[in-house]
Write a structure and sequence with these properties.
The protein is α+β, with helices and mostly antiparallel strands. The chain folds into two domains: 109 residues, Probable inorganic polyphosphate/atp-NAD kinase, domain 1 (Rossmann fold, 3-Layer(aba) Sandwich); 136 residues, Probable inorganic polyphosphate/atp-NAD kinase, domain 2 (Tumour Suppressor Smad4, Sandwich). It contains five helices and 16 strands. α1 runs parallel beside α3. It is found in: Cytoplasm.
């Protein structure tokens, strides 16, 4: 079994990374930054996002494991004091491999088209002032958006930025994407739907901004500033991310622990 490891860079995460390397060596696991079978992230959910984007070109061939140095995260199902148990399981047992959908984002500019994958969400904002953009669903005009921005999330990312905008929390077994509005303008002149929209895998949406307006484009934690954007197509990607689960990690339990608490009843 070959593995790669990415840590958050703080003293605790680095200490845990060294401990994992020592334990892994004792159990015969091979460290490989080029062709790992599993990728371990130590830190938080943000660290796992970094790990995903570092290895996104091999996303079909590897499985991810998250170790959280704080509280339980949505992607990190192991705690900082559980490394010996984790290494033992990696070395001796086969995991249950769970696959979550991703978003494919195709951005067309005057210079051509570039494609990206997002694990959590894609965000679009105008550099200066209000974003004005047409939104088409399945090549049919849907609305003319005016407001602060647009967020398109995966089901696993629905608990993040999307939820703060009033979007629905979606189980990551569903292959879908969700469109949420950031502070849309709704009055007698300008109208949008005003609620999030959920599209299944075989649907897509196109965002058509003013190509003269510079834009901020977010792909998870990555922020790009682009000009001359002609259109942006978002769809459920054919690729998926794989997580190696060595014990149950129920999604709704994570949602409850994160937002409600175990002692709320």
């Amino acid at each position: 079994m070959k593995y790669a490891l990415l840590d958050r860079g703080d003293p605790l995460s680095r200490e845990l990374a060294e401990k994992f390397h020592a334990l892994a060596s004792e159990h015969g696991l091979e460290r490989s930054e080029g062709t790992p079978d599993i990728v371990l992230s130590i830190g938080g959910d943000g660290t796992l996002l970094h790990a995903f984007h570092r290895f996104r070109a091999r996303v079909d061939d590897i499985a991810f494991i998250g170790v959280h140095t704080g509280h339980l995260g949505f992607y990190a199902d192991w705690q900082k004091d559980e490394l010996p148990e984790l290494v033992e399981m990696i070395a001796t047992s086969e995991p249950n491999k769970v696959r979550y959908p991703l978003i494919r984002v195709e951005i067309t500019t005057r210079g051509g088209t570039s494609a990206y994958l997002a694990l959590n969400e894609f965000t679009l904002k105008c550099v200066d002032g209000t974003l004005v953009a047409g939104i088409d669903i399945n090549d049919e005009p849907f609305e003319m958006f005016r407001g602060d921005g647009i967020v398109i999330s995966t089901p696993s990312g629905s608990t993040g930025y999307n939820k703060s905008l009033g979007g629905a929390v979606i189980h990551p077994s569903l292959e879908a994407l969700q469109i949420a509005e950031i502070a849309s303008i709704n009055n007698r002149v300008y109208r949008t739907l005003g609620s999030s929209v959920i599209l299944p895998k075989h649907h897509h949406c196109d965002i058509v901004p003013d190509p003269e307006e510079p834009l901020y484009i977010g792909i998870d934690h990555l922020i790009l500033q682009m000009e001359g954007v002609l259109s942006i197509r978002c769809s459920v990607a054919d690729d998926k991310i794989t997580f190696a689960r060595y014990r149950p990690f129920p999604f709704w339990h994570r949602v409850r622990e994160a937002f409600i608490g175990s002692d709320s009843r």
